UniProtKB/TrEMBL annotation:
Keywords: Hydrolase, Nucleotide metabolism
EC number: 3.5.4.13
Protein name as annotated: dCTP deaminase
Gene: dcd
GO BP term (any one): dUTP biosynthetic process
Signal peptide range in chain numbering: none
MF terms (GO), sorted A to Z: dCTP deaminase activity
Highest taxon listed in the record's lineage: Bacteria
Length: 179
């Protein structure tokens, strides 16, 4: 079951959904609009290897924005920190942004129960496009879980700013087998 915008607002008021900063006018029919934060990550390497921490630069956007050329890929941040111990947040790109040629993919659109922090947004330009801090770029929906709840304690908990892939932390040395 998905929460309506009015219910998201109510649950935020009760502290069962945390959105910081919260702006009631961002509640839509069944979601909460998320804005783009200022920080971006740009990978330095041409080939990324999931077994190793990637080299990257972090830049801060000016108020005038940041231009992406066709094919550019950057990691951005939601301006808001959000999460819930009671509802499962899901993040979706705003369709109007996609119609500008900007694919917004959330690194994990299904947010774990108990996570609280900023979300990392994968931004891929299919056309030249300017991104601007504060632009409404995504929307969070909140879903009622069914079953026993275990709260998230993972490596991205309390994320501040965009996060590079930490898949290298999950890699195990390959076992050598003899045939």
């Amino acid at each position: 079951m998905i929460l309506t915008g009015a219910e998201i607002s109510k649950q935020a008021g009760l502290g069962r959904i945390r959105i910081e900063p919260f702006q009631r006018e961002r509640c839509t029919t069944n979601s909460y609009d998320l804005a783009l934060g200022r920080r971006l990550i740009i990978y330095r390497e041409q080939v990324l290897d999931p077994r190793h921490q990637a080299q990257y630069d972090e830049v801060e956007m000016r108020d005038s924005g940041f231009d992406l050329a066709t094919g550019d890929f950057v990691l951005g941040e939601s301006a808001e920190s959000f999460g819930s111990d009671h509802y499962v947040p899901m993040i979706h790109a705003k369709s109007g942004i996609a119609r500008l040629g900007l694919f917004v993919h959330v690194t994990a659109d299904l947010i774990d129960l108990g996570f609280f922090g900023q979300s990392t947004l994968q931004l891929h330009a299919t056309l030249p496009v300017r991104i601007v801090p504060g632009m409404l770029i995504a929307q969070a929906t909140f879903w009622v879980p069914h079953g026993e709840i275990s709260l998230y304690q993972g490596k991205y908990q309390h994320a501040r700013g965009p996060q590079i892939s930490r898949s290298y932390q999950d890699q195990r040395p390959a076992e050598i087998t003899h045939v």
